[in-house]
Each structure stands twice: as structure tokens, then as C-alpha cells.
Specification:
Strand order of the largest sheet: 1-2-4-3
Number of helices: 7
Helix content: 25-40%
Order of helices and strands: HHEHHEHEHEH
Structural class: alpha+beta
Bound molecules: flavin mononucleotide
């Protein structure tokens, strides 16, 4: 599968089969995160792999009851381990770095036939308590991972001419 096929065909999965994710597939997905770029190549991140059913259920509760998170056999909790660095452009480095790694994982998962959904709606405080995440570490996203139990949803996107301009902001 080429990159554009993955980008154009992937969609968020919110229903998962209980089928476990093979270790070699999980490893490849985590390699995609490891190999992704980061500001100054700092790699200040940690990915917590949650397979325990009770913990997954607790995470679903911390995500305001999005129960499909608990149904996925794996939840990847993506953390920034150095959360104070601000890049010259004014953006927080860890948010950008961890988001890129998550995007790479999501695409790699799709190529392997696995579904994911980016989860940004969660109580960070609650999730940190569940997973013993230290105070200075930030949780950027949670990603449930598993075999889809739904058909792909249709993409709804703005047209290119609505989001692109040339030479100057327009
Ligand atoms: C930063 C971010 C946060 C998101 N948070 C959630 C979430 O908490 N729950 C959820 O079901 N989907 C969440 N999504 C998924 C989006 O709703 C989804 O990507 C968008 O509607 C486009 O659909 P698609 O992924 O199927 O192409 C999130 C996506 C992003 C990028």
C-alpha cells in the first residue's frame, strides 16, 4: 500500500473486534512512532501500551464514557516527556512531536489492516492517575487499536480551494 492510499482510505474506527493485535504488528506500529521526526530530534516521548481490560475500561471512563476505547484490545497512550519546550515559532514542541508520531502510527496501523481513532476528549488528570503518569509528563492523545468491527465511514472534507492559497494569506 502506498502512503497516499493509506491517507485517503483511512477513517476513524469506533467499533473493534476482540481479536488480539499480533505482537509483530504492534511492534511495527511502535517503530513508526520511534522513527518519526521531532523538533531538534529530541524524541521526548513515551508510548504506554495498555492491554489490561480493566485499565482500558477505566481509560474509556476517563474519556467521558467513549466505551469503544475499552473494547479495543490495545490502547496506546501517547505522552510528551518534556512539556515545557517552546519552539521559536511559539508552538509547544511536545504537542507537535507526539502528534506526528501518532499520525505515523495511525497510518502504519491502517496498512496492517488495523483500525484506530485519535482520542483527544479525555480528562488528562484522570488518565494520568490511572496510568501513574508523573506530573511533568503530558498525555497528548489516546489511540485505541484493533481490528475494525464496522465498515469504513465516508470522508467529509473541505475542498482544496477552501484551504489552500498561494503566495500570501488569502
Ligand atoms: C485532535 C483530534 C482529537 C479527536 N478526538 C476524538 C475523540 O475524542 N473521540 C472520537 O471519537 N474521535 C476523535 N477524533 C476523530 C475525529 O473526529 C475524526 O478524525 C474526524 O471526524 C475525521 O474523520 P476520519 O478520522 O474518519 O477521517 C479526534 C481527532 C483528532 C485529530
Amino acid at each position: 500500500m502506498d502512503v497516499f492510499t493509506a491517507i485517503s482510505q483511512r477513517s476513524s474506527v469506533r467499533a473493534y473486534k476482540a481479536t488480539p493485535v499480533e505482537e509483530d504488528k504492534l511492534k511495527k506500529i511502535l517503530e513508526a512512532a520511534r522513527l518519526s521526526p521531532s523538533a531538534s530530534n529530541r524524541q521526548e516521548w513515551k508510548f504506554i501500551i495498555v492491554k489490561d481490560k480493566e485499565t482500558r475500561k477505566k481509560l474509556a471512563k476517563a474519556a467521558f464514557g467513549q466505551s469503544f476505547i475499552g473494547e479495543a484490545p490495545v490502547v496506546i497512550v501517547a505522552c510528551g516527556t518534556e512539556s515545557t519546550s517552546i519552539m521559536a515559532c511559539g508552538q509547544l514542541a511536545h504537542t507537535v512531536d507526539v502528534s506526528i508520531a501518532c499520525a505515523f502510527m495511525i497510518l502504519q496501523a491502517y496498512e496492517l489492516g488495523l483500525g484506530t481513532c485519535w482520542i483527544g476528549a479525555f480528562s488528562e488528570d484522570e488518565a494520568k492517575k490511572i496510568l501513574n503518569v508523573p506530573e511533568h509528563v503530558r498525555i497528548v492523545a489516546m489511540i485505541p487499536l484493533g481490528y475494525p468491527n464496522q465498515s469504513p465511514s465516508k470522508k467529509s472534507r473541505k475542498r482544496l480551494d477552501q484551504i489552500v492559497c498561494y503566495e500570501k494569506y488569502d
